[in-house]
Amino acid sequence: MTISRLILAAILLVFSVSDSLSQISPDVYNKADSLVRITANKVYYGNVKPVWIGKTNSFLYENLTPSGTEFIIVDAGKLTRKKAFNQERFAESLGKEAGKKIDAGKLPIRNLVFSDRLSGFAFNFEGYNWICNLRDYNVSRREKVTERAMRSGWDWGFREELTNDTVKSPDGKWIAFIKNFNVYVREADVKDRNEFRLSYDGALGEYYSSYMRWSPDSKKLMAYRVKPAEKHMIHYIQSSPEDQLQPKHYSYEYQKPGDAVPQKYPQLFDVMLKKHIKVDESLIPNQYSINNIKWSRNSEFFTFEYNRRGHQQYDIIKVDAVSGDTKVIIDEKSATFIDYSGKNYRYDIEETSEIIWASERDGWNHLYLYDSSSGELKNQITSGSWVVRDVDYVDEKNRQIIFQASGREEGDPYFIYYYRINFDGSGLKLLTEGQGTHDASFSPDHSCFVDTWSTINTAPVTVLRRADDGTLLMEVEKADISELLGTGIRLPEVFVSKGRDGVTDIWGIIIRPTDFDPSKKYPVIEDIYAGPHSSFVPKSFRGQATGMHQLAELGFIVVKIDGMGTSNRSKAFHDVCWKNIKDAGFPDRILWIRAAAQKYPYMDLERIGVYGTSAGGQNAAGAVLFHPDFYKVAVASCGCHDNRMDKMWWNEAWMGWPVGVEYSESSNIDNAWRLRGKLLLLNGEMDYNVDPSSTTQLVNALVKAGKDFEYVLLPGAGHTSGGVYGERKRRDFFVRNLLGLDPPDWNMTGK
Q1: Which domains does the chain have, with CATH numbers?
Q2: Span 324-351, pLDDT tens digits
């Protein structure tokens, strides 16, 4: 062999060795994949989901123990706890009837419903309803379980107003229906069904809706007169249908920001007098929606809710059933937006002519008490620098409310606690002790409740409490996570730093791999979702590894953060998103990651990645467009990359109406020229949630800008992160661009 050939062979050997050393082992991926399976069912006594039995104060729950699942019944009155039935005997009876061996510790039954006297229970098994009589443990199979039709996709169109069935009056004597676009009524029991017409102003371009509401006394009828709007249709080509070779075409109604909206005008009809009572329309211009029609029990009036387009005005309007006169009884206004889809709460107390109403008017979501006759605000019920999250029970007799709130107690402002308060705002009482997020289930008579609480890294505790003052009655279960920890999994760490204003706390979590070594440097990947409709960092304990843990297992630190612009904090915190979706809390997120890296130097600020899906997909791509000096690598799945391309309700809620320049300023498509760093885009061909053209238009803009990026179109897929294949592509992209390693050659491994 010549010298030159020896040198060439040596060079090839060096490159071969170099290549083999630069490739991550498939075993690392396999380890990440196995993490969910390894950690499953390793938390004992921590899965209490109470099911109250009839009208009793006893409840049933399934209890995972080291020896299997037990079914337990607790009598909240006697404060006793016992096994619900003899599982060995039941397993023997069921096995004999089913012709197979049944493991008593792993009973394959679902949806247990006990009789009030606890003498037996119904359950589902192998697609059938069954009954077990506990006197002799005789089991018998009954009818087949009715399968619920699975809803395919989402429906972002407007209701078809002419498709409802006829509407029968409460007394059963009358039937209302639409004929030739107008309202007609006929007697229900007359053979020839004499009918008469109530409206004369309905026509093709402005017709009456078939969704009508009778008054309780059956003398009056409310019907909408509808001015329809042109439908916005989007179109799909399913390239690879499973049932034929050739592609298929689909069309789908999907209203987008700026599109016209149907206008609905409530009208009143006196059926006895055959009279149309006109209702004033001047109070309801530029509607986004008119809904929630409620008749009073005495039939003297009805109310409806008016959401003005742009979501800066939301009213409850009262209509007199005799005159048709209208009156605004609650007038909610905001300089930014009203979070009608996330914080709307209304409870009518007809006996005292009052309404309990939720509002953020003082800067925090709180409850208010209104006089529904006069529209006068009687008093604010809750107040302070904290947030009412939900109402569980209104006790009209004792004039008290049980509700959920966060931010009032020390610690994490997202932790949910339960409280009781009087209608007049006095007597506020914390019902749940124990720092963490609480989940309560109340007995049918609301005298007591089961309270389970935990944090992201402390095990669940379940107790029984009195509902009037929160007194502890008994401990039900305390979770054991020792076997989970024995798998080597590292529980998330909660981390807090100051936001962009230097004052507000920003909360998030840090997840490390099982083989974490603080002497190494780790790239950091943020799992992002900055949708303004909620907050997203988990607050309660999770019993097994998540996708974030699996990603960390490849050699990353994974973080998740709630920045400004998300919900469940103050109104000012939330308002950051208004007409500014591109902000996505990035200034807070970047400061948070920098603060974490200052505390933990093994977090490498030169290698920062980000990924997200849907709104998170928009955020992830936005990271490398608007903040490329910090975020270097992004994976964006089915993102709504331009808010003008996505569904109307979600985008107009935060970006406003009419559509303004702010939509372009927040558009990833219009800002595609800004791309620096690495970007992978994925989207499903048949995504009914986010118009898939949103992603392909971003692809087009990047191509025109001459940018390098990667794109994966998933034929036939819907709104998804890509499933197993998408997860692999996401991992590979981060491994290659943050770890500097080649992913496994999947074509060679056959996986």
Answers
A1: 26-39+489-749 (3.40.50.1820), 51-144 (no CATH), 157-333 (2.140.10.30)
A2: 999 999 999 999 999 999 999 999 999 9
